[in-house]
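Saturday, quiet lab. Running sequence design on the structure tokens for the scaffold JK sent over.
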């Protein structure tokens, strides 16, 4: 590798290290966490261009960067609550095995505690209960792989970048914010009695 190329790489890496260091030291108000998250996904977007092929779209670049360099063991797990919502739209009896499998996971995790992502099924485990191809589009161009945490992170990124909001109704209970998790939520019916119980992804 030539010395000028080495220098260019060092400058490139130094630029992003400097930005992340400044971001880490910047004192955001508690109400401005969403701005910090927006900056972080923007940095990931920018870095992803350096390890992608020409012509790759935003989704491919972003998810590939996280999958290959993110050191995130849960990125291939399937979100049980999200796939459960999706299965409600699939009326075919061939999905009954998948429905029962997911419902058992949700019932096990609906005990009021904060639930870690490693309680979600691995992609291959979920696929073993899935009657069609994992990439087959079933409803609104969604497939089984749409519900991996990797793809849900990209959906989260889109909400931050395009709408300056986070999707869902989850609330941040933990202090460090280093890992995603679920918490239970119960909605109120019109007569103020407890309604639907859900697990919300944070």
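Result came back. Writing it out in full:
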């Amino acid at each position: 590798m030539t010395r000028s190329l080495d220098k260019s790489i060092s400058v490139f890496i130094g630029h992003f290290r400097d930005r992340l260091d400044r971001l880490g030291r910047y004192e955001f108000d508690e109400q401005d966490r969403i701005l910090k998250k927006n900056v972080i996904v923007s940095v990931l977007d920018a870095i992803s261009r350096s390890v992608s092929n020409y012509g790759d779209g935003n989704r491919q670049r972003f998810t590939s960067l996280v999958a290959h360099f993110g050191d995130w063991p849960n990125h291939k797990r399937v979100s049980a609550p999200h796939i459960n919502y999706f299965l409600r739209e699939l009326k075919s009896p061939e999905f009954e095995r998948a429905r029962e499998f997911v419902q058992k996971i949700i019932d096990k995790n609906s005990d009021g505690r904060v639930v870690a992502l490693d309680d979600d099924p691995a992609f291959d485990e979920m696929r073993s209960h899935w009657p069609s191809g994992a990439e087959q589009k079933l409803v609104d161009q969604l497939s089984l792989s749409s519900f991996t945490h990797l793809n849900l992170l990209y959906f989260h990124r889109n909400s931050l970048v395009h709408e300056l909001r986070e999707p869902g109704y989850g609330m941040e209970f933990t202090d460090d914010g280093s890992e995603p998790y679920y918490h239970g939520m119960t909605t109120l019916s019109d007569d103020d009695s407890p309604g639907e119980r859900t697990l919300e992804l944070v």
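Notes for JK: The mean pLDDT is 89. The CA atoms of residues 146 and 152 lie 7 Å apart. Ask whether to fix the surface positions before the next round.
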